[in-house]
Structure formats: structure tokens, C-alpha cells
Amino acid sequence: MAKQEPTSAASRPLKIVAGADAFGSSLKDTLVAQLRSLNIEVEDLGTSKYYSVGEEVGRRVSQAANSNSSVETRGLLACGTGVGVAIFANKFPGVYAATCLTTAEALNARSINNCNVLAVSGMSTTPEAAKEILTTFLNTPFKSPCPASGSNPWPEDLQAFFEESVQEMSKIGNENAPVADPPCFICSLAKAREDKEFTPVDVMPGGSMKILRETPTSAIVRFKAGSVEPAHHHTFGHDLVVTKGSKCVWNLTKREKYDLGVGDYLFTPAGDVHRVKYFEDTEFFIKWDGHWDLFLDEDVAAANAAIDKEKNDAK
């Protein structure tokens, strides 16, 4: 295929932020290769859940749209249908994502809506068809003739409407923005359960836990100031966010140390041996897949001795 230079009303260099879920990954890779063969800059975010990758591409295109960058940034998304990724990309101001299954739809989306994120279907669109759709998306200017206009130039009054509508649409989501950050969902969840019963963690003195949901499991965990979790491991990986207090986590498998305070996040992979020290009364939200298990690799006395030794060695 001959190289084609994408046209742009502003004649700015073009950058594409791309991503897909598992159902669209192969098609996305094909289109990324096509873009790079055209010497177009591509930021490939890889493969993730459709709503996560749709959000991330939408966020980056929105940030670029609201900046004075000399580069025009558009998005490319692929999932099973092309619909889910577009829904989540469109949650950001200045993003106009369209699911296009034909070149005609791509022509209409660019001409009428100034579409800046192309979403394609990994299950119903062949690579050859997708390449043609992408080429159309790249080369069709805003307000250009398209199937919806009968392939004729738009009348001047409609061109003016398109121009005004895009300017008005770009303001949606930016008006009446909250002055303060919204309350943290996890913190609110923990607070709502303050008076509920927490079950002591027998093998971890000073610790207690309240299960919130089963499979995948999530819980609020509390530890008293001065408590220590001896080195241990689980058969599952787990995510946690500190909602109160502070703690230090030693990942002994990776030989890494993490000082965590309110709002900090940490993921510990399955099987990684870790030790924890709580400097004040602390709470955190934790989530894992599977049934709860815990295997001790040392006792409390050995854990305290190791922590004290590190402290003395640092003096």
C-alpha cells in the first residue's frame, strides 16, 4: 500500500494514542503497524479491559484537545464490537469517539462530528476493511463531502452549524466543575462500616478485618499502632489503598521497601513474602481474587528483631 499523508485542517503533525481489549488486540496491532508505516507517531497503550483502555485513550485525547499543543492527537480503539471502548472514551470533554464499521461511517463521523477517536470491531471487521476505515479516518477533513451530504459540499449554513456545534460540545463536562474533589469512595465505604463488627486476625496480633464482598473479595483491615505483620505470603495477589494512618511494607522477595500513607496504593503479587510495620492506628482497603489464606514465614519475635536490626544499622 502506498504511503498516504493524512490531511488536517490545521496541518499539524498527527499523533495517535491506541489501545484495545483482548477481542480487539489483533486488529489494533494491524492498524498500529499501518500507522507506523505511514510515519505517524503512535503511543500504543497495549491491551487491557475495554473500559480501562477506553478511559485511558479518552483521557489522553481530552488532555491534548484542551492544550495548545503543536501536535494533533487522535485516538484508535478496538474491542469486540467497537462500542464499549467508544462509550468510555466519550466520557471526557473534547472527545468525539465513533464506532465505524464501514468507510462511509468514518467519512460521516469525520465530516459531521469532527470525530477524533476511531473505534473498530475486532469481531466483525476484517483487517483489510479496518485498514480502509482507518485511512478514511486519517484523510477526511472536518465538514468535507461525505455520504450524508450526497458526496456534495455541505451548504454554508450547515457548515456554520457544524463549526458552532463542535465549539459548544467541547464545553460539555467542563462547566460547573466541582471546586473540591469528590469524597473518596473507599474512605466513605470504610466510614459507613465504622460501627460494624470487625473480626480479629488471629495470626496477626493487633489486626482485625471486615469482609465487604466475596469473589473477588474485598475487605477493610485495621491495625493498631505498633503492630507488626510477620513475614508471610498468600496464594493470591492483592491490591490495597491506605485510608487512615501509615505503614511500612518490606517485600522480602523483591528486596523492596514501601512507606505508605493515606491514599497510597500497593500491589503485592501472589507468593511474594512481605513484612509490615504499623506506625499509628491504620486502616486500608484490600482486594484479592480467591479464598483468603495466609502462610507465615517467620514469627512476631523474628519480625521485630529484623525491623530493629534495620533501624540500628541505619544509625
Automatic annotation (TrEMBL):
InterPro entries: ChrR-like_cupin_dom, DRT102, RmlC-like_jellyroll, RmlC_Cupin_sf, RpiB_LacA_LacB, RpiB_LacA_LacB_sf. GO terms for molecular function: isomerase activity. SUPFAM superfamilies: Ribose/Galactose isomerase RpiB/AlsB, RmlC-like cupins. One of its GO terms (biological process) is carbohydrate metabolic process. Residues 201-286 form the ChrR-like cupin domain. This is DNA damage-repair/toleration protein. It comes from Sesamum angolense.
